[in-house]
Amino acid sequence: MSPGLVARRRGRALLFASAGFFGLAAILARTATQAGMGGGQVTLVRFSVGLASVVALFVARPGTFRPRKPMLLAARGFFGGLAALLYFLALERVSAGEATLLNNTFPIFAVLLSLHVLDERPTVHLALALAVASAGVYLVLGGGEVRFALGAGEVLGLVSGLLGGAAVTAIRALRANVNAPTIFFSFSVGGLLVSLPYATAPWPHAPTAYVAALACGVVAFLAQLSMTQAYGALSVPEAALWQQLTPIASYACAAVFLGERVAPATLVGVLLGVGGIVYGSILGHRARDPGSDEARVAAGIAAEEP
Length: 306
Description:
By secondary structure, this protein is mainly alpha-helical. It has one domain. Helix content is about 75%, strand content about 0%. The chain is built from 13 helices and no strands. It is globular. The relative contact order is 0.23.
């Protein structure tokens, strides 16, 4: 088996794990807000935990922090942190299904941006698979009954998707020679800075809010690190396809842990989402240029991994 194929399979496994972690993080964030913590405060706690975790990793493994391309790192931190904050703020204003669906437009924005910025063109099979998986996500979130109005919550959710697309495009550009923990560090710093103003708001008294927010930070740290690592082996279009698992995992976690109703349309959506991902993974791959950065990373040539 070629090193490139091994790397792609590992990347897909990491995105699968990342989807599960993100799904659990969404449930924990919702639990914290229901217990009285504001969306901005949940974001602040999440990024504080993430920053502490990655700094601990740097201390435990000296030499892991290797920043390169400072402008791209700053872009990843700013766009990613602001996208996360806007998503949590959208959750305060609209239903979880609507906010998640709007935020989950980020894979589509990422594909469009990578087309122009990175010249990563999806194959016809991959584009079709992404469309099928996105239709499945729509059915999963609210059983296909989500209705939109152009209010503040909807605008926040959509802008979070656009910024998220810019953030993952920056990740892809960085992963040729910057390791995942260093990229996550920039994300944590950016997220902490944009959420700091919410530290002055009144904080809740319920211990549940703090336990849930802290747990959200730990789980989100694992999710982000897995996702960032995966972008070293997968193109933006293929990674975007696999990231359609995230809202499906979020809904599955809600059904299991919160007892939310599973409608027939939801089951159809799950089948469409998974089917689109399988189809795109089998037929959507385009052969790499052996001299490209992507091929070098997939083959393990780049020596930036800790």
